[in-house]
Every structure is written in structure tokens, then in C-alpha cells.
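ERR on first pass: missing label on line 2. Operator R.T. fixed the label and resubmitted. Corrected input:
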Amino acid sequence: QVQLVQSGAEVRKPGASVKVSCKASGYRFTTYAIHWVRQAPGQSLEWMGWMNPANGNTKYSQKFSDRVTITRDTSASTAYMELSSLTSEDTAVYYCARDRYTLPPNGFDYWGQGTLVTVSS
Amino acid sequence: EIVMTQSPVTLSVSPGERATLSCRASQSVSSNLAWYQQKPGQAPRLLIYGASTRATGIPDRFSGSGSGTEFTLTISSLQSEDFAIYYCQHYNNWPPWTFGQGTKVEIK
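pass 2 clean. output:
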């Protein structure tokens, strides 16, 4: 069965970076796009970026484009999201999600369990 | 950036009743719209894509309609497990592929 398993909770100080992993199983990793979405406490969902695992192409929300990097290791079927220059406003649960297609997107049909990133001095 | 606006913010419904949730896009997104359900402490779950196609395993009491800028999610007869927050999301053309602010469906 399709699964996306994310790395564990992280605590960082302001100004630091965090890298969250998302290991895919149960399907061919390079066939479907991966998105990253975050959710601050009590807030809605916020789309951050997209990656085609087949070639590493990425698209980012302009809000994060200077701070976020999405990469992958195809041999490990794992996607990564790194966010730099953290502030308290980056405290949120970060999700990876698989798209039904590669491009154009067509709905996110499988989600990781979420990774809580807490930014605090 | 396309802004997605959901209404109402909270919907109080009795079990067995129908629930109608609305989502409006600030510009046309054609039929490139999805609906998700999220329960506390869980990741979202895809319900509807293409504005009206149910995702795999989704009960037929969930239905989606609309195109362009106006969309509706209908739950025909609410079950206890349906009380949750529902989000719409567009995935038209270029990113960001934004979500609405959510509608909480609560027990009346």
C-alpha cells in the first residue's frame, strides 16, 4: 500500500534551518509529483512547493522561494524539504503529499503523517 | 495568486441531515478544484478532485459540483465520522495552488 513516512518532530532556534524527509513506499517514486504543505496551529493549509521526482524539477510558492529547497534521493525513494532563516511564524506541522499526476497537479491523494517544527529561542 | 474563500466558517448540522459547503475562487479555475477532509490530529484526506470526481474509497454521500469560480461540496446524510474541517484547493495553471480557510462541520 502507498505510504509516505516523514521524519520526526524538530525544534530549532530562530535563524536556523530545518530539513524534513518524506520516504515513499508502495509505488514507483518517480511517477508522481510530491508537494509540501504546512499548517500553523489552528490555521488552514498552506502550499509551499512541488517537485517532479523523475527529474528534480521544482516549483515554489513565491512566499517561500528564497528560503525553501525541495530535493530528492531517488535511490531511497525519499523527498526532502529544507526551510532556512526560521522565525517563530514557521512553527507548524509540515506535510508531504503525493499528487495524482506529475504535472499538471490533480489533487493530493496520499499524505505523510506530518512533522511538527517548533521554532523557539 | 488565486484566493479561495469558503463559506460558512462553521456549519452546525444534525446527524442524518444534508450539509452544503461553498467555495469561491477569485478568478476562474475551470474544474481544477479538490476538496479535502481533515480531522483533529490527522493529515487531510482527498475527497473530490476535478470538482466532481470522488477519490478512491470515498462514500457516495459526498458529491462535488461547480466550475469556474463557484463550487459546492454536499454531504447528503451526515454520519458521525463526517464531523471535521473541509478545505477546498485549486490547482489551476500556475502555482501557488492555494487552499481555502476551511469550513468546520460540527454537531448541532
